[in-house]
Please model this.
Amino acid sequence: MAKRVESPSSINTFKQCRRKYYYQYIEKLPTFPNIHTVRGNIAHSCLEHFYDIDASSFTQENFKQKCREAVQKLLLHQWGAYKKEVEGLKLSQDQLRFYFEETMLMLINWVNQFLEKLEETTRKKQISLQEAFMYLTPVREMEYTSNNYSVRGFIDAIQHLEDEVHIIDYKTNSSLEVKDSIRLQLAIYSLLYFEKHGKLPSKAGIFFLRHKLKLVPVDEELLALAKKEIELIHAHTSTTETKEDYPKTVTPLCKWNGGQCDFYEVCKPHG
Ligand code: SF4
Model:
């Protein structure tokens, strides 16, 4: 059986519940968007396009306002671009307003921290605002595919700073903890980066949009974690596609207050 091309998300699903992996990636049953995934995509699109703004008119007096306005306009624009997905969620106007405002606060939090970094860069490197903006502009939404490991992933931002490279993922999560699943995601990105560029990124991290950037050092141990989990999933999924070989892991993630696993009805974990 050929190896399936896995991703951090499919590997974490496999680790959480093998039956869920079976429904999603082998039977390919549909999944259902929810406000957290949709607004996550909206926030990602805003941050991807933020760096396309015209910095040539920045002055010491106006650059903060211009950046904040840019992010606000981007959110309005992207919320409209995702209108079909947002309306499909069938949320009340009050709920939609709440999530829109909450997303706006996250983006303003992010832009405020970007502005601090922009000022610090102009000061430390004695360069103009425009040069600092260029310097801080990351490579965005880069797809990495490894035929060797049969894995692929999209890295949200790759930042080249002096002699350091940071790979960064944005998250709108309410939990601000670098959980095992996040650590594994960063490990896989680091491995993909290493394979393509022949050198390790210095750090990998998550920009929690409700809070701040959290970076972890990239070392051999992190790469070993990625290799181990990739090997484990291929060893299983390339030998069987029988449902019974993908047992259920019944946890509070099957059903919780206000939500349930996409496959809850077909899976019937509680009988
Ligand atoms: S409902 Fe629970 S046991 Fe069933 S697939 Fe989803 S997570 Fe796994």
Notes: Residues 17, 19-20, 23, 248-250, 253-254, 261, 263-264, 267, 269 surround iron/sulfur cluster (CB under 6 Å). The first helix runs from residue 8 to 16.
